[in-house]
Design brief:
By secondary structure, this protein is α+β, with helices and mostly antiparallel strands. The protein has a single domain, classed as RNA polymerase II/Efflux pump adaptor protein, barrel-sandwich hybrid domain (OB fold (Dihydrolipoamide Acetyltransferase, E2P), Beta Barrel), CATH 2.40.50. Helix content is about 20%, strand content about 35%. Strands 1-2-3-9-8-5 form a 6-stranded antiparallel sheet. The longest helix is centred in the C-terminal third of the chain and has 8 residues.
Length: about 130
């Protein structure tokens, strides 16, 4: 079973979302996603200032097995991207919920996060 932190929300496409105290959200891929992909070799990040649509693709994660689109769990504007992934994409394998975050977003409507799965529902969906 993969690691599923209880304080995050989850999309069916295997992204996680963490609400930050300043009203922004941090987004990454789940432990399940990184394990399914295998050794990650490249991460395509969006540009700061990009406006993302909910469920729209914002980047790509490539591994030795496959390339997979990454989707925005909520709509919003990109505030920051994790540029450390440019030189160390394997961080997504090692620490998907910490140093392996992908982007910070100013959500268009934070209430949209409520439609995402909680940890129990995500664990059930990936069982």
């Amino acid at each position: 079973m993969s690691n599923v932190p209880a304080d995050l929300r989850y999309a069916k496409t295997h992204e996680w979302l963490k609400s930050d105290p300043d009203g922004s959200v941090t987004i990454g891929i789940t432990d399940y996603a990184q394990a399914s992909l295998g050794d990650i070799t490249f991460v395509q990040l969006p540009k700061v200032g990009a406006v993302l649509k909910q469920s729209g693709s914002f980047g790509v994660v490539e591994s030795v097995k496959a390339a997979s689109d990454v989707y925005a769990p909520v709509a919003g504007t990109v505030l920051a991207v994790n540029t450390a992934l440019d030189s160390a994409p394997e961080t997504l394998n090692r620490d998907p919920y910490g140093e392996g975050w992908i982007l910070r977003l100013k959500p268009a409507n934070l209430a949209d996060a409520g439609a995402l799965m909680d940890a129990a529902a995500y664990e059930k969906a990936t069982a």
